[in-house]
Specification:
Blueprint lengths: L1 H23 L2 H17 L3 H18 L2 H11 L12 E5 L15 H10 L6 E4 L4 H10 L7 E4 L5 H14 L4 E5 L2 H13 L3 E4 L7 H4 L8 H23 L3
Parallel strand pairs: 1-2, 1-4, 2-3, 4-5
Helix pairs in contact: 1-10, 2-3, 4-10, 7-8, 8-10
């Protein structure tokens, strides 16, 4: 009992640490910190160090905002799914992304792709996981015509490890062991590994992530959406390392 409590506390601490890391891995935050260092060096009259810190801050935020870097990082992480989805016991949709505003069958979002797979008959069960969006997505599915008996909701999990752990319990209770897993392409490597760690057979079904605009943009001109993608990929790299270290994947 004490060991289980200790494990939960340690897991909660790691999850909180990853939340902090997510902020610190954003290039804009890193550049602001370097800017603060530069300012501190000015007050201490160390002008050469101030100039170097300021220059590095500007160069880094510029470089991190380029489509060339953002797409290279995405390519190194992204996981593709099978050309034709196989039939499975369930479709698991992870929260954490923008929900459909009107067309719930749009495969550009996680929720939309899950619904499209269910409507196409690839699995009889829809499992929605994530404390941030699970209930809202489940309500959207019900409004879109999915029978409540075909929906399972995990509204407690706060991270990918808990998504896998809590979904595995729901799947086991429903007699399901093979799933189509729906999440973003850059998140899929960690998510599918976490589910496999729980004994679930996974078929990845990544979403588009709507980065098409970056492919047609000048590679070395900064863009805000490129900066967001870079930040997400940097965080995902660190999260993969942390999950390996913790034994969650």
């Amino acid at each position: 009992m004490l060991e289980a409590c200790f494990r939960r506390t340690r897991d909660a601490r790691l999850a909180a640490s990853l939340d902090i890391v997510e902020s610190l891995t954003h290039p804009a935050v890193q550049s602001l910190l370097l800017g603060a260092v530069s300012l501190a060096m000015v007050f201490r009259r160390r002008h050469a160090m101030a100039a170097w810190a300021g220059a590095i801050a500007l160069a880094w935020v510029w470089f991190a905002s380029t489509p060339a870097l953002a797409l290279a990082l995405r390519t190194s992480l992204a996981t593709t799914g099978p050309a034709q989805p196989p039939h499975a016991d369930a479709i698991v949709v992870l929260g954490g992304e923008t929900r459909p505003l009107a067309d719930w069958s749009s495969a550009k979002t996680r929720a939309g792709k899950g619904l499209a797979l269910w409507r196409a008959g690839y699995a009889p069960l829809l499992v929605v996981s994530g404390s941030d969006q699970a209930r809202a997505i489940a309500e959207g599915y019900a409004a879109a015509g999915v029978p409540v008996r075909d929906i399972r909701v995990d509204a407690r999990s706060r991270n990918t490890h808990e998504n896998a752990r809590d979904s595995a319990a729901i799947l086991a209770a429903s007699g399901a062991s093979e799933v189509l897993l729906v999440t973003s392409a850059t998140h899929m490597r960690r998510a599918s590994a976490a589910f496999r760690k729980m004994g679930i057979k996974v078929w990845p079904e990544p979403t588009d992530e709507t980065h098409a605009a970056l492919y047609g943009a000048p590679g070395w001109l900064p863009r805000r959406d490129a900066l967001s993608l870079t930040a997400r990929c940097l965080y995902e790299r660190i999260a993969l390392w942390a999950y390996h270290l913790r034994g969650w994947i």
